[in-house]
């Protein structure tokens, strides 16, 4: 879920825990209210989902159709509102919603977290987002396993809502500073525009860890397809936030290569149900195209100005994903002409390479399989035993977009029972 705190909140966030943030709580209550008021739409969507899933079952006798929700915020919507239970209650038991790798904090290699911790303990001011602050590294650095622990040990680690906030704060001092630039395409224009407008002071360096989602979607679909015991992914709910930048056209190659429907969806529960209904409709009719359901924010071309800004400042590179390894052309690195902003060059950090990357998840943590849709959080032996939101072991238990954290907080079925009664499927 995107942080909705306003800039006036800066520099003091209401809380470092997004789950306890009063702004987020208000947003959640508004979403719940809106859902309760739109049950007639929900009822129609569930009717269509049941109809198409029955048609598919009768046509080819298959028991499971997997639909992958690629974005962590979609997974949040699905779990918080109990949409899996709602589908089951509506009779669409053969439709399985599978979470994908839509959490940038979950897939950022431990190596970069460890270097950020080290710099913080060496006197560098480290700016970071709230969820990165708590993500555990594989190996402790000088006694600290996270940036939160580095701060507790005296490091100057400052939590900010955006790169711009870090820029504003860094302009008030001249100490060596680092911004831990984790994110997907949605954050990249914020980095590139600040650089192009000359706002970034020389002592603030960017560690670009931006990941690109279309290559990750290709990789994920391939991996699941290659595992012969698994049902393939039959359709994809494409990320809405990312699509505001890259546009619906970015998913066209996915639909063509894998011959599956792709629907760009918004984040209200009815958006997600509409996406599922459209995916099943296309499957039942033998179609495989990209449809934008989230038309109130996404266009086919996307944000051309943002795309141009990103292309000017960054180049596409092969990139390492935590626990997974290298995915070709899935990351952004600063171009040579912007090297003066580059944290790797300035602090003398060698970037990872396919030769130096090592598997970097803790023992028994199944985060990589969870992010690739090959396992559920409940398949992990540590889930809610050794690994909890208060004491996370793996990275998927930290962020508001991490599947394990979402299941841990809202795994009880959400509002499904109440909504099911309201729409008459209970
Ligand atoms: S529950 Fe914890 S240890 Fe298990 S996969 Fe999730 S993050 Fe990893």
Polypeptide structure, described:
This protein is an alpha/beta fold and 426 residues long. 42% of the residues lie in helices and 14% in strands. It is built from 19 helices and eleven strands. A five-stranded parallel sheet has the order 2-1-7-8-9, sandwiched between helices. The protein has a four-stranded parallel sheet with strand order 4-3-5-6. Strands 10-11 form a two-stranded antiparallel ribbon. It is globular and about 65 Å long.
Q: What best-fitting shape do the alpha-carbon axes yield?
A: globular
How many H/I helices?
Answer: 19
Determine the mean pLDDT.
89
The H/E string reads: HHEHHEHHEHHEHEHEHEHHEHEHEEHHHH
**Tally of DSSP β-strands:** 11
Strand content: 5-15%
Structural class: alpha/beta
Bound molecules: iron/sulfur cluster
Major beta sheet, strand line-up = 2-1-7-8-9
Write the layout of secondary structure elements.
Blueprint: H1 22-37, H2 39-60, E1 65-69, H3 72-80, H4 83-89, E2 95-99, H5 104-107, H6 110-121, E3 125-128, H7 130-134, H8 147-152, E4 157-159, H9 163-170, E5 177-183, H10 188-196, E6 204-210, H11 213-226, E7 233-238, H12 240-246, H13 252-258, E8 262-264, H14 269-285, E9 290-292, H15 304-313, E10 314-321, E11 325-334, H16 343-347, H17 367-371, H18 403-410, H19 416-422
Helix pairs in contact: 2-14, 3-18, 4-19, 10-15
The structure holds iron/sulfur cluster.
Iron/sulfur cluster is lined by residues 365-367, 370, 377, 380, 382-383, 387, 393-394, 396-397, 404.
């Amino acid at each position: 879920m995107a942080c909705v705190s306003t800039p006036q909140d800066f520099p003091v966030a209401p809380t470092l825990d997004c789950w306890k943030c009063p702004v987020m709580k208000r947003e959640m209550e508004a979403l719940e209210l809106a859902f309760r008021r739109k049950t007639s739409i929900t009822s129609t969507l569930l009717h269509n989902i049941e109809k198409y899933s029955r048609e598919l079952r009768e046509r080819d006798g298959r028991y499971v159709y997997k639909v992958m929700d690629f974005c962590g915020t979609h997974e949040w919507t699905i779990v918080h509102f109990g949409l899996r239970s709602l589908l089951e209650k509506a009779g669409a038991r053969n439709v399985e919603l599978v979470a994908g790798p839509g959490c940038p904090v979950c897939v950022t290699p431990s190596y970069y977290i460890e270097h950020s911790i080290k710099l913080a303990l060496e006197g560098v001011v480290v700016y970071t987002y709230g969820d990165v602050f708590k993500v555990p590294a594989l190996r402790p650095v000088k006694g600290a396993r996270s940036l939160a622990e580095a701060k507790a040990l005296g490091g100057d680690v400052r939590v900010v809502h955006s790169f711009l906030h870090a820029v504003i704060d860094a302009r008030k001092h001249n100490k060596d500073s680092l911004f831990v630039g984790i994110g997907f395409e949605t954050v990249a224009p914020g980095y590139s525009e600040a650089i192009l407008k000359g706002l970034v002071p020389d002592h603030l360096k960017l560690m670009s860890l931006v990941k690109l989602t279309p290559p990750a979607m290709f990789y994920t679909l391939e991996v699941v397809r290659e595992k012969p015991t698994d049902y393939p992914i039959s359709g994809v709910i494409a990320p809405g936030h990312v699509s505001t930048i890259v546009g619906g056209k970015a998913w066209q190659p996915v639909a063509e290569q894998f011959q599956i429907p792709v629907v760009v969806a918004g984040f209200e529960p009815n958006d997600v149900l509409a996406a599922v209904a459209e995916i099943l409709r296309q499957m039942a009719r033998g179609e495989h195209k990209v449809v934008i359901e989230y038309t109130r924010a996404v266009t086919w071309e996307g944000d051309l100005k943002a795309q141009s800004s990103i292309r000017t400042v960054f180049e596409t590179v092969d990139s390492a994903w935590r626990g997974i390894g290298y995915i070709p052309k899935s990351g952004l690195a600063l171009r040579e002409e912007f090297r003066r902003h580059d944290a790797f060059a300035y602090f003398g950090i060698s970037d990872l390479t396919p030769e130096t990357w090592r598997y970097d998840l803790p023992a028994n943590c199944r985060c990589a399989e969870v992010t690739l849709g090959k396992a559920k959080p409940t398949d992990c032996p540590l889930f809610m035993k050794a690994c909890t939101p208060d004491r996370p072991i793996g990275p998927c238990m930290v962020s508001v977009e991490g599947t394990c954290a979402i299941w841990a907080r809202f795994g009880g079925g959400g509002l499904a029972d109440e909504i099911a009664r309201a729409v008459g499927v209970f």
